What we know:
- Helices cover 28% and strands 26% of the residues.
- By secondary structure, the protein is α+β, with helices and mostly antiparallel strands.
- The protein has a 4-stranded antiparallel β-sheet with strand order 1-56-55-54. A 4-stranded antiparallel β-sheet has the order 2-3-4-5, with no helix packed on it.
- This is Gem-associated protein 5 TPR domain-containing protein.
- Residues 329-355 are annotated as: Disordered.
Amino acid sequence: DSxxxxxxxxxxxxxxxxxxxxxxxxxxxxxxxxxxxxxxxxQPWNKDVCAASEDRFAYCATLAIYxxxxxxxxxxxxLRAIMSEHKKTITAISWCPHNPEVFASASADNLLIIWNxxxxxxVARLDNTKGIPASLSWCWNAGDGVAFVSHRGPLYLWAIxxxxxxxxxxxxxxxxxxxxxxFRWHPVKKGKVVFGHTDxxxxxxxxxxxxxKHVLRPESxxxxxxxxxxxxxxxxxxxxxxxxxxxxxxxIRMVDSEGLTCVTxxxxxxxxxxxxxxxxxxxxxxxxxxGDSQVGVLRIWNVSRSTPLDNFKLKKTGFHALHVLNSPxxxxxLSSISPTKSHYTSSTSEAVPPPTLSxxxxxxxxxxxxxxxxxxxxxxxxDMGAKKWDFLRDLGHVETIFDCKFKPDDPNxxxxxxxxxxxxxxxxxxxxxxxxxxxxxxxVYSLSWAPGDLNCIAGATSRNxxxxxxxxxxxxxxxxxxxxxxxxxxxxWSHKDSKRIATCSGDGFCIIRTIDGRxxxxxxxxxxxxxxxWSQNNKDMIAxxxxxxxxxxxxxxxxxxxxxxxxxxxLAKVFHVRWSPLxxxxxxxxxxxxxxxxxxxxxxxxxxxxxxxxxxxxxLMWNTEVPYLLTSGSWDYxxxxxxTRDGxxxxxxxxxxxxxxxxxCHPSRPFTMASCSRDSTVRLWSLTPLIxxxxxxxxxxxxxxxxxxxxxxxxxxxxxxxxxxKVSRDIKxxxxxxxxxxxVKKLRWFSECFSPPGGSHNLWDLVSVINGQDDSLxxxxxxxxxxxxxxLVRFKTSEAQELTIVKMSKFGGGIxxxxxxxxxxxxxxIHLRLGQxxxxxxxxxxxxxxxxxxxxxxxxxxxxxKKLMQRRADQLMQEENHDVIPYCIATGDVRKLVNFFTARGxxxxxxxxxxxxxxxxxxxxxCNLCCSRLLQCxxxxxxxxYFQDGRAVLAACCHLAVDNTELAMASLIRGxxxxxxxxxxxxxxxSANQATHYVLELLARKYMTTPTCFPSVGSRYYTxxxxxxxxxxxxxxxxxxxxxxxxxxxxxxxxPGSSSEIDQIHEKCGLPSLEECQALAxxxxxxxxxxxxxxxxxxxxxxxxxxxxxxxHVKEQLSDSDWTVDSVHPILDLLGYIRTDRLILAKFTExxxxxxxxxxxxxxxxxxxxxxxxxxxxxxxxxSQLMKRREVSVPLQxxxxxxxxxxxxxxxxxxxxxxxxxxxxxxxxxxEHAHLLDRLxxxxxxxLEGPDYVTGSNLPSHSDVQVSCFTGLRIQGPVxxxxxxxxxxxxxxxxxxxxxxxxxPLGTGVRLNPF
Length: 1315
């Protein structure tokens, strides 16, 4: 087994080396954590860039393929994988028609790849496609074969496997007279294929028939040389010969490929409309949809009519690609008719004619979801039946993102600059775009926010000079053209003097000008200048990075155009330079030589060289609180975090799939970093784990000297991290002014400073509400988040009223701002869910939607209903799909409505309705107690949705909203948000005490180590952290727990120091000395007190004696027929803290093996009790493997372990997706499972049942592909490396394993520490 290694096979010298390393290196704290991902948009350059299969769809960014999959539990699509292997633009993708796990992709570097989606790995690759594949398609009914074609042909056929594997050329499909736009195989008629050309013609080939080249051009083009490219091409799924064709200018035609005639020409409402893409609707024969190329209008057609049945304007920008997913039909659909029954079957002959449409009646669409890709990179999934977006990923960048910066006065707004010619501003809490620049700027290389709240961004472009963009007004207000046609690589707005802007360019000049364009200085360099940065301590000092390998510093207060300092040392061009915000005179530079150099301006010297990147360095970022922390991003796809005191690399992030260009953080959230890359994504990271001991000092209420200091103290090599920036000083100043609640505010403010976005502010607002804070003190943002149940209806009513009266300003709405009608509709929906039916009806009348108003009016009164009837007596309700929501509200059937919303994944809506019922706004048939239970259930369901989405903090918010502190704390614990959980628990007080004490214990385990080097999570490198003594931090945490004697004893037992050091920690913890523990142990043995005997032996000079006493007791217990987990676990838990250096000694091999086996087995049972389903089989397998390989005497049988595991799997349906179909458990298995549950008893801590799921668990990595040694499958989310530095499991599995079995899955006897 790959996760079980035998120590006996290790040679003696290696063994002792392992002993010395393992006994001190067991803390593997996760370092930089990925906490957010802004996915790229869909590229608009190539045609076949979206595809779908069953419950998945995929689209192409420039360099990666994004795969979304339906989460059936919540009925929503989630990003599941990012496939990244292509180094140049992806040109086409195609899903295998007969295997939903496989798709193919092609790219401009003449590469073709076959992917397995489930395993997220490459199955096959073709490295030389003899030209760039412009279009790609699987050969229908031809096994594993992919066809591809470049613009002029020929058509290549690649047989991936089998006897004929290799590439061949289609015998006829070559020597075309016009470029190929795209091609399509017939899905039924084997070998039949059609090509669409740029001249508007088609070429059709089929075995046994005459080939037709360049036929069926639009009539208006005949006899001319004009081109009218084929933009879309799809075979009629019910015909062997009919084909839908779209030309860029001549619209859509249905043509007969056999008779070479045009069957139907479809007419558009406007002559300006042109079609970019089309797709058949599989659930409705004869129906198809099209997307306009100029504006995002989706048109619905039926082949029996030449005009569209309906039109929906979905976006302002035009369509680029369309694909319709098959939805599971509610009843047998006409599309199941066999298409081969008649040669002349087609969508025209099989289509059901649409009903005659009256002026006011909308056509009812069949169920179906359209994957829509737009020219601006937007990607969405449109539910055509419900006429709403199920998912919309709007305005993603489609090309390299060169720069990113946080808004100076708002840590929630992040601006990005891209190769695609735009700057976009994102809300990082919702990961949505709120503003985008007009575009058409060529490449935008760099951006810089105006200081403070000026709401302007300066941008630097490749061909249009520099500009200032007013974000709120949405327009360019100034342009700078002093560099002529040369590209500007960097722009920097001075934050000390808001009137000055610097630019540097390929023309060799760094130019300083005022914002009105007056040039102040032109600094000439001998070559191109790539980077510049204003000093944060001296408003007149600026540094530049140049192609001549040098860094220069200029002083603006003099008239000289010569630099004050020139720093030499780099071996290749210098790109970015950054001044330290905390240390005057210190700056860093990144170079194409792969290094980062630290320069001291005051010493005129290079004081450190940071080596480790294997390609040019681009992104650079100093931390604004910890003066020695520096982060760099490189073309080697990695981000590295450095300790500049000694040049140590603290951590390396591998998640980007291409060159990393920009890094940034906001001063008020100094440990949240954003990065941007050529992979077109923005990723958010938490750096908090790097300075975790600081937060422990805050938790343990240490003196300010342990938290805040000056830079000189912080820069001492090996010194513990200290905060030296403005934010920490501001917090201290505010706390010094307070006379009450100082501890509460201290915990909250530091927690918010350290926490990444994603709900921590919301969480603290709810904690304040529960603790009785006055509502008037709640921030404005509170109403936008998860609210406490007592506020929900009030805030939502207020929101509804705002939506009703607000007049949308010309520029104030941001991207896609709703119209007045949409605002009124939103208001009406809120009023409805709050039970305010009459207001809903009036707003519906105002919108002209009388039918909806009439349907719920009886819920107000029959009299009111009659009034409405009189106002619209001539209108009767004639909807085929009755709107269940108004009826449920009017009749008071709240449970039915909640179930309706929940089944559709609309959990926020369900929550509103349940709360409305609880407050009596909805006249409910049943009692209020039922409503209260319903509200609790809905909140629990919503919390689970957030939790499964990797957002444990928001899950905790849902529980706090209904005063459920136990489950809120459990969410934070299961999400491994331990420091935040302690802060919140301490402030909540008694109601959270039990959970707080458990978290403190887990947090103490994190620091049960010694100062040393250790491999960090997600990294194969050893990381050095020199704290004063992590054991002291662990002791401080445990001393915050009442009745902590046993916990402190475990800490002392594990401490691996000398006798005098051990006695010191015993004294600190208030425990007897080593010798006294020996005597107490022997006394306990004589009295038959096994627990205390084991406890004191562990703290004695001979801890191994505890093994003999404890294991003998556990074996005796297990031999009894009615033993329970709780009768043996306390002893095993104690034994788990035996010093590692003693446990792995050769003379204790047998005792060690027995301890590991017993801990593994009891761990498996605890995992069943905690519902850690993913690790139960691994724990059973681990125990069985150890029993097979080691000579031991334990009262366990391998066969019995197998019987238990099978019974558990059968009774809990816990089988993997690839295993045999489910069969009901036998009576014997039911009896075995019941016996197993009797041994387990109840979990003492409520809410901890269920798997752990840390933040970022659902965020795919582009490039860091690791395979779990538990499952053999690729690990999604954070990875945890075991002590051999190679074996990996998911961090979630590591956390669950460590909570039920302290020892590593490798069977070495080393303790696992993933906390």
